[in-house]
Design brief:
Layout: H1 13-29, E1 39-40, E2 46-47, E3 49-53, E4 67-72, H2 81-84, E5 90-102, E6 107-116, E7 119-122, H3 127-130, H4 155-171, H5 177-180, E8 186-192, E9 199-205, E10 217-218, H6 225-233, E11 250-252, E12 264-266, E13 269-271, E14 275-277, E15 283-289, E16 297-303, H7 318-330, H8 340-345, H9 348-353, H10 358-361, H11 368-382, E17 396-399, H12 402-408, E18 413-419, E19 428-436, E20 441-450, H13 455-473, E21 494-497, H14 501-514, H15 520-527, E22 528-530, H16 532-540, H17 546-553, H18 561-574, H19 579-586, H20 589-595, H21 604-609, H22 615-625, H23 633-657, H24 668-695, H25 704-747
Parallel strand pairs: 3-4, 18-21, 21-22
Antiparallel strand pairs: 1-2, 4-16, 5-6, 6-15, 7-11, 7-14, 8-9, 9-10, 12-13, 15-16, 17-20, 18-19, 19-20
Helix pairs in contact: 4-6, 4-24, 7-11, 13-14, 14-15, 15-20, 17-18
């Protein structure tokens, strides 16, 4: 190192003569010990621990006496990486000088001093986060801040958590009336849902007046209505529940999040607590020569001990960002239509980085939004302005790796749905999905490609799935109801499907071969739930009268078997054409049990805490379809494998390093807020469309008084319709009374 100053001599001449042989022998045995000689970095720092590095360091070690890092930057394309690659947040207090002499380097330098900004933790963070210190980071250790208790919460706790999230979502969204300027408060209201005079709750607005349109959020089955009513009536206060004491949320100090994503109960009140930034007195002091060509070394001094847990590796090193940019720029296929999803699943990742999954290259790449930002910047700079032949017969290709099977064993339920767009030709894709609450992501466990969709084909597919699952996990597939006689129940508790008769029959036969103590139909009664959205769609698209459709929609909501029987009786009285065919179909035991819990053998607790639709599967279809549709079979399989592998690698990094999979807030509260906004937007759009249809025939230049008159006429029509509905309700009540009287007379 020709440009480095000689080590400072702090010994007398006589002492030096005695130590020469010893020092020479020491240099022969270990040259690195020379770097431990006391060195003067500046007038402030006298460092004994000096370390050389050819690369930037993300988690530099530190000590109370200080450590000096000498970076050899002659081959670096970005000299700023000394600071930019550090995973600790750096900021004030600090300072800089443009011309200062460094005795160690022997040249004039510009220095830059920054302080560690700590991390962000919840206001009620666990003492493990408040009383911890560290001076070194082992990248192989578990940096997860996840509380293990959240992985094993009870169903009652889950319902309470859902209710708290629903409450926070409601109070943080406004009523849509008068362009969201309404000052009304959210309240629990009720409306009649069927002809048996049963009320269903919804979240409405306290300022509602007949004839106006205010907030309307339908009640959800996995939310405690009484608790929600208590929260809305008491400004978020809840009784008979212990307050939260410890939270394990930990995020980098550079994050823009201001609130903890987990709702907490503090002093009896539900709220989102603020994130608190921890303090830290570690300093990072960089000395960079004014002439790096003649002295290609940068010295960084790190001193003191960190008083917080290590932050997750959230920053992508500069050289990896440059490699990503080069990959996008030099790839003809990705040049125009590159997306983060295609980049993750593309074949160039392994060619450039030597890894199949970007998250294996660096944990920070687990955050897909970072990739999106890089790709968007590059695209803005670059552009400022068949199916392979398949023989006849039944084809079935099952794709599932061990990580998927092991992950699936931890879930209470899974969904099964067929996708018809991925592969060109006759091949369709059957997916097994669920929503992973821990990673806030849709997860796919298995994909089966097949050209069959009848009961026999589904039987083969489900049987193959159970066999492969057992081969991968070394455990036989088990369901909750298999262990009904044991005190400890385990296994899958529910399967959610979409009212496909062939699929249900194939599943029942596969389950019967797996566990033949029950009949095929008994298996379905114990485990099957049908998607209510598919049911609603079938009713809406049917050719029956509006009165019949209204009664049909009440089938899943009926509280007792008597109410269900009453609905079928009323449908027969309406006497629509072919109505008996519909009644016969939906009186099929497994269909009725999959729609109404009164006929199901499933535990009520399981019924209420598992999904009522297959929206997760539909979301999964949309995600994988971004990889393109109508693909050749081999290409579709490869893309799916790559996508699934990347997703599970990102799950692992999220757990191991606490690096989020996205910068977006995907907490339960935020998801419910977004869902409410989407519903309000859909209703507003629907209302505008209906108004446009009414106004389509009007002549241009309609006067304001004429428009107001039309509005009044519409309100009168709505009132008439309401009166007719009430009249029909009264008639039905009379029929019910007459029926009961008849039963009493017959009983006498």
């Amino acid at each position: 190192m020709s440009n480095l100053a000689e080590p400072i001599n702090i010994s007398s001449e006589s002492e030096e003569e005695e130590r020469i042989p010893l020092l020479s022998q020491e240099l022969v045995n270990n040259e690195e010990k020379l770097e431990n000689t006391l060195a003067l970095i500046s007038s402030v720092y006298h460092i004994t621990d000096i370390r050389h590095s050819l690369f930037p360091i993300e988690y530099p070690d530190t000590s109370d006496d200080g450590i000096a890092y000498v970076f050899h930057v002659e081959n670096w394309t970005d000299k700023k990486a000394v600071f930019n690659n550090i995973q600790y947040g750096l900021g004030k207090p600090g300072g800089a000088h443009s011309n200062i002499f460094c005795p160690f380097l022997g040249v004039q330098c510009k220095d830059d001093k920054k302080s560690c900004q700590g991390v962000k933790i919840c206001k009620i963070a666990t003492p493990e986060f408040k009383d911890v210190t560290h001076s070194t980071v082992d990248l192989n250790m578990d940096l997860s801040s996840r509380n293990s208790s959240f992985l094993t919460i009870s169903s009652s706790h889950q319902i309470r958590l859902n209710t708290q999230e629903e409450y926070l979502a409601v109070i943080n969204s406004k009523c849509c009336y008068n362009n969201y300027t309404c000052n009304g408060q959210p309240v629990i209201r009720y409306h009649k849902t069927n002809r048996s005079n049963v009320n269903q709750y919804f979240i409405g607005c306290s300022a509602y007046i007949f004839g106006t349109r205010h907030r309307y959020i339908s009640g959800k089955p996995n939310v405690d209505k009484n608790l929600l009513k208590e929260l809305l009536g008491n400004e978020g206060r809840i009784s008979n529940v212990n307050g939260d004491k410890n939270c394990f949320t930990l995020i980098p100090s550079a994050s823009q999040k201001q609130k903890c994503p987990i709702p907490h109960i503090i002093d009896g009140k539900v709220e989102l607590l603020p994130l608190v930034k921890t303090g830290c007195n570690v300093i990072f002091h960089k000395y960079e020569p004014l002439d790096l060509e003649s002295c290609p070394y940068i010295v960084m001094v790190v001193k003191n001990t960190h008083s917080h847990p290590p932050p997750p590796p959230h920053r992508t090193p500069n050289h990896l960002q440059q490699d990503l940019k080069s990959l996008i720029e030099n790839s003809n296929d990705l040049l125009i239509d590159s997306t983060s999803r295609r980049l993750i699943s593309g074949p160039l990742i392994k060619a450039v980085f030597g890894e199949t999954v970007l998250a294996d290259v660096h944990a920070s790449m687990n955050n897909i939004d970072k990739l999106r930002n890089i790709i968007m910047r590059e695209q803005k700079l670059l552009h400022p302005y068949g199916q392979a032949f398949i023989d006849d017969g039944h084809i079935m290709i099952l794709c599932m790796f061990k990580l998927q099977a092991e992950h699936m064993s931890k879930f209470k339920y899974f969904m099964v749905d067929m996708s018809y767009k991925r592969v060109f030709g006759e091949i369709n894709e059957l997916e097994f999905n669920a929503y992973d609450e821990n990673n806030n992501s849709v997860v796919t466990f298995c994909r089966i490609y097949s050209n069959g969709s009848n009961a026999k084909a589904y039987q083969y597919m489900f049987t193959a799935f159970f066999e492969v699952y057992e081969d991968l996990t070394r455990e036989k597939p088990t369901f909750y109801y298999f262990n009904s006689e044991n005190s400890e129940k385990k296994g899958w508790a529910a399967i959610i499907v979409d009212l496909d008769k062939g699929q249900a029959k194939g599943l029942s036969l596969a389950l019967n071969s797996l566990y033949n103590s029950l009949s095929p139909e008994q298996h379905l009664l114990s485990v099957l739930k049908s998607c209510l959205i598919h049911f609603e769609r079938n009713v809406r698209n049917s050719k029956y009268s509006d009165e019949s459709k209204f009664l049909m929609r009440q089938l899943p909501k009926a509280k007792t078997k008597d109410e269900v029987d009453f609905l079928f009786d009323q449908l027969r009285l309406i006497d629509d054409e072919n109505i008996n065919d519909w009644i016969t179909e939906y009186q099929t035991p497994w269909i009725l049990a999959s729609l109404n819990c009164n006929y199901s053998s499933m535990d009520y607790d399981v019924w209420m805490t598992t999904p009522f639709d297959t929206n997760v599967s539909e979301c999964s279809h949309a995600n994988i379809n971004r990889e393109r549709t109508r693909l050749r079979l081999k290409t579709a399989i490869f893309h799916s494998w790559n996508y699934n592998l990347g997703l599970y690698r990102r799950f692992y990094n999220n757990y191991q390093y606490n690096v989020p999979m996205s910068s977006k807030n995907k907490s339960g509260v935020k998801r419910k807020i977004d869902a409410n906004k989407r519903k309000e937007k859909q209703k507003t759009t629907s209302l505008l469309k209906s108004q446009n249809k009414r106004q389509k025939g009007n002549v241009k230049g309609v006067k304001n008084d004429e428009f107001q008159q039309q509005i009044q006429e519409l309100e009168i029509e709505e009132r008439k319709e309401e009166l007719e509905r009430k009249k029909l309700d009264n008639q039905l009540k009379k029929l019910e009374i007459a029926r009961k009287k008849k039963e009493l007379r017959e009983g006498q």
